[in-house]
Amino acid sequence: MNKHFFGDTAVLLGRSLKHVMRSLDTVITTAIMPIAMMLMFVYVFGGAIRTGSGHYVNYMLPGILLITVASGVSYTALRVFTDLKSGVFARFQSMPIARSALLWAHVLTSLVANLISLVIVVSVALLMGFRSGAGVLDWLEVAGSLLVFTLALTWIAVIAGLAGKTEAGAGAFSFPLIFLPFVSSAFVPTATMPGPVRAFAEHQPVTSIVNTIRDLLAQRSVGTNIWTALAWCVGILIVAATFAMVAYRRKLS
Amino acid sequence: MTVSAIPESAIRVRDLEKSYKDLHVLRGVGFDVARGSIFALLGSNGSGKTTVVKIMSTLLKADAGSVNVHGHDVATHPAKVREAISLTGQFAAVDEMLSGQENLVLIARLRHLKNPGKIADNMLRRFSLVDVGVRKVSTYSGGMRRRLDIAMSLIGNPPIIFLDEPTTGLDPQARIEVWQAVKKLADQGTTVLLTTQYLEEAEQLADRIAILHRGRIIVDGTLTELKQLLPPAKVQYVEKQPTLEDVFFAIVGADDENGDSGEDSDAETTETLARTSD
């Protein structure tokens, strides 16, 4: 590893954090859509949805958090794409710096930007009546699950940013990700869905992640869900990161 | 040549070949650039200029041939090459979200230099950007952007600089600003390789000119040598209409320095253009 790897990554991280702080509209728009959905589901559809006892916002918050991350990473793709198109990428790569520093700076920035959006969404949920008796350890597990999920989607975003031909194209990958929670246990119990849809919903990654976070926040035992969730996230993470690294190297040769 | 010995040429390219899938972009390119000189790679769009620059600046790997930059082979010692060069790409590669000052500090930090703030301030002064130093680059004009771009390339005083079409898309005034910056660089002993599609630019700046055409160097020499290749000049009386550029400068009132360097060669250039296209 290059002796300047950590120093260079820190400098470039500082740079892209400045981007995030100077375009807070990106963080806010990331948070606004999930907040709007949360309002719709709680105050419009929520009354008709049977999820058992408890406030509906408690039920659907985990899914909303995943949607927040899914829409947030589109800006990660956009930042990578902009660096590539503006020639900044080429400039950095022709300089004596650690070659992967720029990539890691973008990945870390993605984590920070999504964290800010998640905090905003959770704050609004609290105002809407979300309550959890979860302890510090449970919250840490929730944070950990979201972190691994964000990392996995971030690497997918990096691939999109590197491969995108246009700005819109680079960000478009996140739409299917945003819709995945709708066909899961995020908003309604999967038991009400017809056979094939239910089969898909119960075996796609979002359901296990949502169930894990929901159980942690409700202080129920998470059972094997957490392992399924982790396996999905880590699996996606490894595959996406590998492809992203290959795409990144290819840009350099 | 051993790696440690200081070679005579700053850049030495031999039999360079590169294809993108079926497209054979470079078909055996070779040239030498003397230390401290300005070398112009002249060619039309799609002639392969940018590909050559990308290979020399370690961004692209060649299919065949060798490139030696500052005594290091780009294929085997790319990291060493990167320490000796600086690339100013075809489009000003500046960070739009940062100020000019922050852009310069960023590069100084990435070059692991001490006192990045001081270096940045010096550069702002040297390129007349002090007044706009704290402004976001997205508010800069094309000329200011290019000057900042070149200033960023000079941080750390790399001995060799690549300028890929440094004046494409600039207005005449900004172009002359860039020319002046490049001349100053060479005066200080920096080796400059620039690509251009403008004959006039090569004529104005370069000690040596190579014409890249369809992936091959078809001519390589000094301006005088190139002129000798042309048919002898005929004396003709032609009414010289003012060019649009003359009109532009007459109306906006060019800086004093601009006037003498820019215009005299217009007629000559037009003539050269006409003859080369024969």
Major sheet of chain B: 6 strands, mixed
Radius of gyration of chain B, CA atoms, in whole angstroms: 20 Å
What low-confidence regions of chain A span 5 or more consecutive residues with pLDDT below 50? none
Helix/strand class of chain A: mainly alpha
Give average pLDDT of chain B, whole number.
83
Fraction in beta strands of chain B:
15-25%
Could you tell me the strand content of chain A as a percent range?
A: under 5%
**Number of E-type strands of chain B:** 10
Number of helices of chain A: 11
Task: Explain what the structure shows.
The complex is a heterodimer of chains A (253) and B (278). In chain A, helix 10 crosses helix 11. With 253 residues, chain A is mainly α. Chain A starts with a helix and ends with a helix. The model of chain A has no long low-confidence stretch (mean pLDDT 87). In chain A, 76% of the residues lie in helices and 0% in strands. Chain B has 278 residues and is α/β, with parallel strands linked by helices. Chain B has a domain at 9-94 and 140-233: P-loop containing nucleotide triphosphate hydrolases (Rossmann fold). Chain B has eleven helices and ten strands. Chain B has helices at 49-56, 78-84, 100-110, 116-126, 142-154, 172-187, 199-205, 223-228, 244-252, 256-262, 266-276; strands at residues 9-20, 23-34, 38-42, 64-69, 72-73, 85-88, 160-164, 191-196, 208-213, 216-221. In chain B, helix 3 (100-110) packs parallel to helix 5 (142-154). The chains are: A mainly alpha (253), B alpha/beta (278). The A-B interface holds A 4, 7-8, 11-12, 15, 18-19, 22-23, 86-88, 90-97, 252-253 and B 54, 57-61, 79, 82-83, 85-87, 89-98, 102, 106-107, 109-112, 152.
